[in-house]
Design a protein that fits this description.
With about 650 residues, this protein is mainly alpha-helical. It has a domain of about 100 residues. Helices cover about 70% and strands about 0% of the residues. A two-stranded parallel sheet has the order 1-2. The longest helix is centred in the C-terminal third of the chain and has 17 residues.
Length: about 650
């Protein structure tokens, strides 16, 4: 057994050379012999608690407070909370001095471990049990841990208790920044503004983070004007905005669709010597794509490159998605080539968006070529990309090829989901192969995917379209017996099947159950149009008109299909153009009385398209409703946006 002097020498050597960086935990097991080779400290023996009991016997070495502090630092870094508690207990027993830095290290460790409640508990014990008065640094550390864990209400309660009620601690700028973040997260914007106005009275000057937090909260509440005023205020107060500040405003304006003001903020950004960054350009491009200004978004992409801002996959994803929405998937595929030429790699979202768009635009060959190129590049599709290809093939009435993709998908350890099963059933129903569609459903049911509203809706719609109403009724009863609540699509599919198979009364009965059965499901214009068509075909015109009145009373506006159904029956019954025109005029007046200006305007569009010239009084009704001062101003702004924005 080595002498006490040699042990002391060894401990001194380790403390001085490694600063306790290798100490990982604090144990109470018996001490082991120290390794003779100093080069193998990988699994060092634990520190025994006897070290803290026999400092006098270890030669010239004496354990002091700094030793405890070093242990706390190491245990906090490794998240060893059991050992931390033992060290704290030992220090308390020996009446050692606790310093605030010890607690801040532990607070951060609790934050990393997502144990905010323990951080709050330790904060309460600091002064009472450990005789260490917490300062604003400790408070900020704890409330930040609570916020990071998403406990916003608890953070606000903690702030109110310590800062407002007990007044134990004077807040600083960081405190206000954190609490403003909490208030904005809780949508308490007015309270956040009140707190912000208190800062000067607490000798706290708001910084750029303060303004950014509050401006972001205002933008999310659609209070853009106040956010813009705050930008002016911060500059008057001598706080210079950063790129992040401008980006917050630009993002809020773009989401609102106010691209003209967003452009002006960019100009202001340049005037203040603040250069737009990647986030600025991505935000503007996203805003342009939301407004359908794809060509301007592409031009801005070129400007972004010239400004030496490197576009990333988010930039290209936004533009490609915008092109696909405008049915320009081929241009999107060209943009994909540009992306790859810049050394970037397309993600799953880009491929699924393009493949889906090409199929929907009736270009299956291009979609399949893109799929092959993707596979040849070594890209591994996930379930979303597979489902896009399968759905596209089924749209093209190629469910057998889609089944081959499912087999390949399973080999790649990707399991089909409810969307894939629904697509396959649609494909086989579209080809009239109901037996295969039912087989797919049984497979889905065995995988626990068949028993959901989407699959039931698809199978009922498919059976009804293929004339198998009895089988559809069986599935309908199955839905109700299992406690599923059919949605409006399922109801409409079932009603459509009944009406098409000379079961009009049963369809009307199901419609009444839909609106009166307490399901909360409201029929849409498609549901009404199916019933209008069924009633008129069977000669029940008066019942169809009664149902039309019911539809308008329930807040559902007629559309072009509705008008065509009634115009056709009026022409067949009365052979008079004037009757059709009068019918539409009455609809306009009825909708206007209910203050449904948009619906009335749509009927006017139908009249003009049918060459029915509305009366002067009808024009006046609609024009007065649409051309309000605010609407006129909005229309002028849209024109200016189209001409000059970006």
């Amino acid at each position: 057994m080595p002498s006490s002097v040699s042990i002391a020498t060894l401990i001194r050597k380790r403390l001085s050379s490694k600063g306790f960086s290798q100490i990982r935990y604090f144990s109470v097991i018996s001490p082991r012999k120290a390794p003779e080779n100093e080069q193998e400290p990988v699994n060092e023996p634990p520190i025994h608690e006897d070290i803290f009991k026999s400092g006098q016997k270890l030669g010239s070495f004496r354990v002091g407070d700094s030793t405890f502090y070093t242990l706390i630092e190491n245990f906090a870094k490794t998240g060893d909370f059991i050992s931390l508690e033992k060290v704290f207990t030992q220090m308390k027993r020996e009446r050692r001095v606790f310093i605030e830095r010890n607690f801040i290290l532990v607070f951060k460790a609790y934050g990393k471990a997502k144990q905010a409640i323990k951080a709050l508990d330790l904060f309460d014990k600091m002064w009472v049990e450990y005789q260490c008065r917490p300062s604003v640094r400790s408070f900020n550390s704890v409330i930040n841990v609570v916020i990071q864990e998403g406990l916003f209400s608890r953070a606000l309660q903690f702030y109110s208790s310590v800062i407002i009620q007990e007044k134990r601690i004077s807040p600083n700028v960081l405190t206000y920044n954190l609490i403003l973040k909490v208030l904005c997260k809780l949508d308490l914007i007015d309270r956040a503004i009140e707190t912000f106005r208190e800062m000067p009275f607490k000798n706290c000057t708001p910084d750029v983070f303060t303004y950014c937090t509050l401006m972001d909260g205002l933008c999310k509440e659609d209070r853009i004007n106040e956010a813009v005023c705050l930008l002016d205020e911060m500059q008057v107060e001598g706080c210079f905005p950063s790129a992040v500040t401008f980006n917050v405003l630009i993002n809020g304006l773009c989401k609102k669709g106010d691209l003209s003001r967003a452009s002006k903020v960019v100009d202001n950004m340049f005037l203040k010597g603040c250069v737009p960054n990647e986030v600025t350009y991505n935000t503007l491009i996203h805003g342009l794509c939301l407004k359908g200004k794809i060509d301007k978004a592409v031009s801005l992409l070129d400007r972004m490159v010239h400004a030496k801002c490197v576009p990333n996959d988010i930039t290209y994803s936004t533009i490609i998605n915008g092109l696909v929405k405008q049915k320009r998937s081929v241009d999107g595929a060209t943009m994909l080539i540009s992306l790859e030429e810049r050394g970037l790699h397309a993600n799953h979202y880009i491929y699924s968006t393009l493949i889906s768009g090409l199929f929907k635009e009736g270009k299956p060959e291009k979609a399949l070529n893109l799929w092959k190129k993707m596979i040849n590049k070594g890209f591994k599709p996930n379930t979303v990309v597979y489902s896009t290809l399968i759905d596209g093939l089924c749209r093209e009435t190629k469910p057998d090829e889609a089944m081959d993709v499912v087999i390949e998908m399973k080999k790649m350890n990707c399991n089909p989901n409810a969307f894939i099963y629904s697509s396959l059933m649609k494909g086989f129903f579209k080809r009239g192969n109901t037996d295969k569609a039912l087989e797919i459903w049984r497979d889905a049911e065995s995988q626990s995917y068949g028993q959901n509203e989407v699959c039931y809706s698809v199978i009922i719609h498919g059976l009804c379209n293929n004339g198998k109403v009895k089988e559809a009724i069986t599935f309908w009863e199955n839905i109700l017996s299992k406690g599923y609540k059919p949605d409006v699509v399922t109801y409409t599919s079932m009603i459509h099947g009944l009406c098409n198979n000379t079961c009009l009364e049963e369809g009307l009965k199901l419609f009444n159950e839909m609106i009166c059965g307490g399901s909360g499901i409201q029929p849409d214009v498609v549901t009404y149009n199916i019933l209008f068509n069924g009633l008129c075909k069977n000669g029940f015109v008066s019942r169809a008109i009664d149902l039309l009145n019911c539809m308008i009373d329930r807040g559902c506006d007629p559309d072009l299909v509705t008008c065509n159904i009634f115009l056709k029956i009026l022409k067949e019954e009365m052979d008079s153009v004037e009757n059709g025109s009068e019918f539409l005029e009455e609809l306009v007046v009825r909708l206007h009385k209910g203050q449904r200006v948009v619906g009335a305007a749509r009927i006017i569009e139908v009249m003009v398209g049918k060459y029915f010239m509305p009366k002067e009084s009808t024009w006046e009704i609609v024009v007065r409703g649409i051309c309000k001062p605010k609407r006129i101003r909005a229309g002028i702004d849209r024109c200016w946006n189209d001409l000059y924005v970006l």
